[in-house]
Amino acid sequence: MVEKFSEPELTALRTELLQGASDFREAAEVMQMFLVGRGYGVSPEEARHAALRTEVAGCSIEAIQRELEGLALVN
User: What are residue 37's DSSP bridge partners?
Assistant: First the structure.
């Protein structure tokens, strides 16, 4: 089953990524905290790769959703 995060959750995450993350490492940490806060496990290395891909994709809501779906590990 693929997790679909709500539009408000993704919008808030996008805002945090754009305003609070100065580089992809910080963006990866923000994405990790987002998922861990929702009960998912996350590979730190994969989170860094996802943050880079999200940045390259312009940090769109769709890119964030796609990357979160790939990162979220069921505990």
Answer: none
Within a domain: 46? yes
* pTM of the shown model: 0.87
What was the pLDDT predicted at 1? 45
The structure tokens listed for 14 are 């996008």
Tokens 């580089």, located at residue: 23
CB 14 within 8 A of CB 61: yes
Task: Return the pLDDT at 74.
Answer: 76
Q: What is the residue range of 45's domain?
A: 24-74
Domain membership of residue 67 (yes or no) is yes
CA distance 56 to 39: 27
